[in-house]
Every structure is written in C-alpha cells, then in structure tokens.
Records
---
Amino acid sequence: MTGDGATPQHHRGELVHREQFSPNQNERKLPISMLVVHYTELESQAVSIERLCDPEAQVSAHYIISREGEVVRLVPEAKRAWHAGKSLWRGVTDVNSASIGIELDHPGHALGYGPFPDAQIDALLPLIAAIVKDYDIPRANVVAHSDIAPARKIDPGELFPWERLAELGLCLGTPKIALGDPFDNDGAFYLALERYGYDITDGRKAVEAFQRRWRPRKIDGEIDSEIRAILFQLLLDRDQGRSR
C-alpha cells in the first residue's frame, strides 16, 4: 500500500500535529514490512528536526515525537526516509526501503538516559497501531534501531517500554519459556540468532542487542542459559505459527 503519501489513511488525521518535510528522502524499492523505533540523542526536538531536515546530514525519519507528545511528520510514508543506516533485519539489507522510521526526542545514553515520558509513549502507541494495521506489519518486524544495527546502535535502549507495546499486540513481548535451553554451544546460539533475523557479524554486540530487547535488566554480551531459552522460544513460536 504505497501511493503518493497523501491518501486519507496516511494523513493519520489527529495523530499527526504538524508537518515539516525533510529533503532527505527518495523512492522506496521494497514494500513496507517493518517499523523501526529510534531515539534522537540530541538536546531538543528543535535541534533534532533541524538535523533531520539538513541536506548535508543526509538523515531523516518519517516521524519525530516530542517529549510532550507532539507528532511531526518529516517524510511521507510512501517515501524512503534515511533513518536505518547500514542495517540488516531478516535478510533485508535495504531497511530504509522496507520500513517506517520513528524518532523519539530523547537525550539518549550520551546526554542522560532515563525513562521515556508518558506523553511521548501515549502519542507513539496509536501511531504505531495505525501503521502496522495499514501495512500488515508483522509484530516481529516492529524493532529497535539496535536490533537492525547491533554493531553500531543501542537505541532506543533498555528503558523503552516494549512490553507495553506487546500488551497491545503491536510487537512481540518476551516469550514465556516452555522448554528451557536447547543450544549445545555458542556457535549454535549465534546461528539461531542469525536465523531469527540479527546481523551476527559482531557476535558480542549482537548478543547485547538481543539482551537489550528481550532481557533488558542484564546486558553484558554474555550468552547464558536464560537468553538461549528466550531465543529458542522465539524461534519455536515463529516456526509453529504463533507469531510472525
């Protein structure tokens, strides 16, 4: 479902408060099948928008949401925004072509990491709900920037409320462990991690990204029985059709 970005379902009505279009966009080469959540790691919404609209910066996103919950559209959904950078998810390397990118105005880990404001998440949830419904995006493809670029990125980080999204059916939640730890060695774990969708070029960073998303209370890059069990359950649920 593409088009010119101006069809009624893509205006998002009351979900979008204003538009400030970025020149940093081009044509998609793939249908939309993912949604990527980022944080800005800059001082303010205004500074972030200035950067996301700066032709020299060569970065953009479809939306940015302020700490107060203002949603600003920067790139029409039908167009390819430049938010993912060098990335990979489930075999797709042109993530920009296949995804909608949403930036959250946030100081990030560099400028004082803390919880995301309720007003910001309250604005994010209905926007994600509308997007995943329109494009039939699988819950497993609503991901963090760190999921698609584990060697480079850690946003939106361990305090992002994935479980709140999962409760609304907008992403996958951490699965309930049924069968425990099946992997004989670390090599088997890495192969399974790659099969799930991660880029394992930097193994330790890939493990950290997996922990940040699925077990955020402990992120140490070490493969342990708990994350092995979580990954196995995620793959089992997918293979048996309980998730997509």
---
Amino acid sequence: MKGKERMAFHGDKKEGTWLLADAENRLKDWLVPKVPKGIETYHLTLTTLLWCALIILFSFLARYWVPFLWVVSLAIFGQYITDLLDGEVGRRRNTGLIKWGYYMDHFLDYLFLCSMLIGYGLMVEDHNKYLLFYILALFGAFMVNSFLSFAATGAFKISYMGIGPTEVRLIFIAANTLIIIFADKFEIARVLPVVLAGATFALFVTVYQTQKMLWKIDMDNKAKQERDTPVGEP
C-alpha cells in the first residue's frame, strides 16, 4: 500500500494471565516436538469438529447411562490438547496460516461451547433448558468483548479475572464427574443458576474494565493530539 504502512496482525498472540498458564506452557513445550510431521496445524484445528460431534452424541447417550459422560469429558480433554497445540505447531513450522488460524480457531471454539450446552440441554428437563440459552448468551458476550477489544487495541485477551479457556474446560469436566458420581442426588439444573449468576457478575466487571481502558486510551490520544497541534491550527 503506497503511503501507508500495513498494520501487523496480532490475532495469533493471545494475552492475559490465567491460573494454569505456566503449567500449560510447559505442557505445550513438551508436546509440540512429539506431534508427527504428517499432522499439520489445520488438522489439529479442524479436529474440534470431531470433538463437538462426540460431545453431543455421548451426552445424548448419557440420558440412558450416565457413565457415558466419561467419554464427554475425554472429548473435552482431547479438544483442549488439539486447541493447545494447533497454533504453536503452526508457528514453529512456519505454516503461514495466521489469519485462517485466528478465524477458524475461534469460530470452532464457539461451536465447541455450543456443543457443550447442547449436550447438557439433552440431559436437563425441558423447563430448565432456558437457563442454557442464557448461559450461551453470556459466554458468547465474553467472546464478543474479546473481539471488539482486539479490534480497538490490537491486543487479543482470552482470560478474565484469572479464568481462561483451560479453567472453563476443567469446570465442565468437574461437573460431569459430579453428575456421574452423584447421579441420584446431583442435578445439573441446581448448578445452572449459580453458573449464570457468576458469569453475569464476571461479564459486568469485564465490560466495565474494558470500557474504562478504552476511555483512557482515547483521552490520552486526544491529549497527545492537542499537544502536537500548533497554536491557531484547527
């Protein structure tokens, strides 16, 4: 582009601090060299479609035999591993699929979230299904906040209040484990209002902090522009 510098894309560089970040980085460094050469970054990214299908299928089967939720938890763990490795494999092998990876990775993350809530929707009673739609709307709002903030600042943040995608997956696995162990006493419907309340509070705090940060950036830029503008020049 003549006369203009093309802005660098930083969507592949995730920012934020979550509880298991350090352990996750060590696991990534250990696993990436073990990925076979025939498996590329796009193979790992698209594997999320398989994990989503398994989650929905075995959640449906868990209606009739609760231990099928172990397979659901295994699929969650599988999606975590492939999601952890896909970007790093691409960077180390210089695959070049930076924007494709950003788009597909996060679109498939949304499908993964939907598959989890669809799975739970297959297991709860009809009069409680509306809670899952509210939770999907809230979790979707976190994703929208990340993308809007990224567009405004160029920094792609994926964790909120110390909680990132890894911790969310662990919550799903913990919920599945409780359902299996206490099948006769534990009901998903009792947990959903707590999740809903917690997510609502976290979203409020996140949006407040984000708008406050953007306000400061705008005011700093305005002050700098006023300092740099010669006296008498509009």
